[in-house]
Amino acid sequence: MEKIRYFDHAATTNVREEVLKEMLPYFSIEYGNPSSLYSLGRRSHKAVELSREKVAKSINAMPKEIYFTSCGSEGNNLAIKGVARANKNKGNHIITTKIEHPAVLHTCKSLEKDGFEVTYINVDENGIINLNELKNSIKKETILISVMYANNEIGTIQPIEEIGKIANSNNIYFHTDAVQAIGNIKIDVKKMNIDLLTISGHKFYGPKGIGALYANENVKFDKIQDGGHQEKDKRAGTENVAGIVGIGKAIEIAYKEIEKNNNNLRYLRDYYVQQIENKIPYIKINGDRIRRLPGNSNISFEGIEGEELLYKLDIKGICASSGSACTSGTMEPSHVLTSIGLPYKLAQGALRITLGIENTKEDIDYLVNTLEEIIKKIRNK
Ligand code: PLP
Questions:
Q1: What residues act catalytically?
Q2: Which CATH class name applies to 5-13+258-379?
Q3: Contact by Cβ (8 Å): 199, 9
Q4: Is the CB of 101 inside a 6 Å radius of any atom of ligand 1?
């Protein structure tokens, strides 16, 4: 069995040791329900509130504006359905983009069945939206703009500050799915006029099964799950205390180390791309080369079928992705790659590499050499 070399950090990450250490007591000795009034419960409550402060601080929000959820998908559902339902007296129009994660796209599709109208704006060949198209899509019925911060497949970063200004000056709520951006990009929700922002713990060395939604204190949104009064009556269900402690610790470390980590990720990613360009012909680099996440590379290899490539890389101990993890079980070309105008053949041959803090230059050399060997063999078949 080959040593595992992990290049799929946009799919998920391992829980850091320091994070796990802080979480562990909340699985065993500190098992109180945060809603219980005795001291065992109060200690859990305190841990939850301390984590809320850490999450809030990392994006310049107030603790009361943070709602813990079970994942990024739930955060997106709560933000979009919550705002739509609470503001339907003002209008029924939502604007989003064609390259959102399914947790946004399918939520919008579901709202269309309930009578909402959704405009899905385009992206250019680099994967960036056009601000004029956004402005022209606004109607008097528009209540929400939802544009992802950074794309999970091609890593492109949208002009969030400009979108925030447009939304704000038109009195429209602005939500951003920041699941891929958190920990990689410094975010100031107040300065950027972001009204709602989705976070997921497992993308920055925190645990799976925990997320958070930031909602500005002035945003009107409905709960989408009925039950108890947890999370200021916006998210029923006993809190995942260990997960909440984990997401707080993970986000705190991510932002403490952001500069050092990003410099390293950018260096390794650029080295990888340069090596591929030098060694493998007939490739296409997907997504904007500058406005993208530091550890993301997405390259199409002509004449290659992504699934076959992934299978052969796996035999060599390499974990990567041919598209979004959530769609890689199907043979459909990725909606993101087709939205940037990639022909079917090139979309099928895309390989997403997303680097993380444990990757080294030696890992990249192994990856490039293995890719060169496999691609040569497939092309010569
Ligand atoms: N949004 C984006 C951009 C993502 O990349 C993902 C997961 O890959 C999600 C939302 C969903 O997050 P979760 O897996 O926590 O539900």
A1: 326
A2: alpha beta
A3: no
A4: yes
